[in-house]
Specification:
43% of the residues lie in helices and 15% in strands. It is α/β, with parallel strands linked by helices. The protein has 4 domains: 134 residues, Rossmann fold (3-Layer(aba) Sandwich), CATH 3.40.50; 115 residues, Alpha-Beta Complex (Hect, E3 ligase catalytic domain fold); 107 residues, no CATH class; 47 residues. Helix 1 links the parallel strand 1 and strand 2. The protein is flat, with a radius of gyration of 29 Å.
């Protein structure tokens, strides 16, 4: 009898589109039986499980990504990944080949316990055929599901979670009396000239939650105001997710079988008002747009503590929660004005020598002494070398290498900030006093905004802006 056991991981996945799949518990049972019979042990921490998630794209499977991250460690903590079927690993042949190749380079085999493969090139060919078949099935099934949903929409049926103001009964939309009144209020207020941000703020004050249980934002209010479901229609895009593109030419709008909450005249008057307001509106910068400025990420709202972000490109900042309707106090300020306020405040601080100091928090490792921290930093630096080697060997993609490198550098920075200071010593001098020319650097036009931001971050924890008094409070690091 073989008494040498090898460590393995188990990956369990159940999607919502196939009733013939084994349940998660059944998959675990089958995998564990195989492990016991073939000399593997599967520790509890190496059982990775994604429930109700499609296998088409790896980036949408959090447990799969945790397993891959664990497998990249050197030495690898396990020598095999056990699956009920190869389709659990991926239903995208390109991703399947990529991740299996990466795992095998690290000495890890991917094993389907119900689809045994023979060794050699013929076995690999059969595995590729199975992968292709799984991907084809997934694509075909997805098309059939969309076609079925589209046919249901054409008949006026409900195919998604109920919009705010409705509930589902017997697979049909039915008015929810507890929330429908707020839908009417939203439409009424907007026609009276109440801004979307204020409508969101008022709903949050009343502690009304969205359908998904979240706080209201500008976009959620706008979504309601633009949704024809409230006049008895069904909106559906058979080709893609519409997101907030309400003018997508592929959108279908058909008569639904449910009772409207809003009359058509009110709804279309709101659409006309939207069109008028959109021509007056100066667009905000979307969060996906990278905009570098000196105070990026440093200025905080005195009301809610959220960051001030660019509201009008290159012109002004505003509380990000206020922009989304989650904060009820505007903190709008011209970028040039707050830049001058911050630099002037730094100059005054240097002149009078009074600093609002804050110790940097220690890292989670809770090191007992600086020697321990140095050892941890050395280990992280070794990791940098290893991930570079992994990228050059093709184990890491460029994106994975960049993300891993950034995470390690951030950890090194935290460790550097964690050096223990004697608790009985009160420091009177701050490191920023050593360089009183900082304000001169921050006023230089030839120095980039990103460089200025890095200078500020080296000694500034945060800047609190109070709109009521138009004042700021600087908190410096020790």
């Amino acid at each position: 009898m073989n008494t040498e056991y090898k460590t393995a991981a188990a990956y369990i996945r159940v999607s919502t589109d196939n009733q013939t799949e084994l349940s998660p518990d059944s998959q675990i049972k089958v995998v564990m039986q195989y492990a016991k019979q073939n000399g593997y042990i599967v520790p509890k921490q190496f059982v990775f499980r994604d429930d109700g998630i499609s296998g088409r794209y790896a980036d949408k499977r959090p447990q799969f990504n945790l397993m891959i991250a664990a497998a990249k460690q050197k030495p690898s903590p396990f020598s095999a990944v056990l699956l009920w079927k190869f389709s659990r690993f991926a239903r995208n042949q390109e991703e399947s080949i990529f991740y299996k190749s990466m795992l095998r380079k690290n000495g890890i085999e991917v094993i389907s316990v119900s689809e045994p493969m023979i060794d050699g090139p013929f076995g690999k060919l059969i595995e590729r055929i199975i992968e292709w078949s799984d991907e084809y099935y997934s694509i075909r099934l997805s098309g059939e599901v969309k076609r079925g949903m589209t046919e249901k929409v054409e008949r006026g049926g409900a195919v998604s979670i109920p919009a705010f103001g409705y509930q589902i009964k017997n697979k049909e939309y039915v008015i929810n009396p507890d929330t429908a009144c707020f839908v009417k209020k939203i439409f009424s207020d907007y026609l009276k000239g109440v801004p979307v941000a204020k409508i969101a703020g008022d709903l949050n004050k009343l502690k009304v939650k969205t359908t998904r249980g979240n706080l209201w934002e500008n976009r959620t209010v706008e979504y309601i105001l633009r949704n024809p479901v409230y006049i008895g229609k069904i909106r559906w895009n058979p080709k893609r997710k519409t997101q907030r593109n309400y003018d997508d030419p592929d959108i279908m709008i058909v008569d639904g079988r449910h009772e409207p909450i809003i009359d058509k005249e009110t709804f279309y008057n709101v659409q006309k008002l939207f069109e008028i307001n959109s021509k007056k509106h100066i667009p905000h910068i979307h969060s996906s747009v990278s905009e570098e400025y000196m105070l990026h990420g440093l200025v905080k709202c005195s009301t809610c503590g959220a960051s001030l972000t660019m509201a009008v490109k290159g012109v002004s900042l505003q509380c990000v929660n206020y922009i989304h309707g989650k904060c009820n106090i505007s903190h709008s300020i011209l970028l040039k004005k707050i830049n001058d306020m911050v630099i002037t405040s730094i100059e005054k601080t240097f002149k009078n020598g009074i600093f609002n100091l804050k110790f940097k928090s220690q890292s989670k490792c809770q090191c007992e002494n600086n020697l321990d921290i140095n050892l941890l930093i050395a280990k992280e630096q070794q990791k940098l070398c290893r991930i570079k080697d992994a990228y050059e060997d093709g184990v890491y993609t460029l994106q994975e290498y960049k993300e891993s490198k950034r995470a390690i550098i951030e950890k090194i920075s935290i460790l550097n900030d964690s050096f223990c200071k004697p608790q009985n010593i009160v420091e009177r001098k701050n490191p920023i006093e050593k360089n009183k020319s900082i304000s001169i650097l921050l006023r230089r036009d030839d120095l980039g905004e990103k460089e200025k931001n890095e200078i500020l971050r080296s000694f500034t924890q945060k800047i609190i802006f109070d709109r009521a008094s138009t004042s700021i409070e600087l908190l410096f690091y020790i």
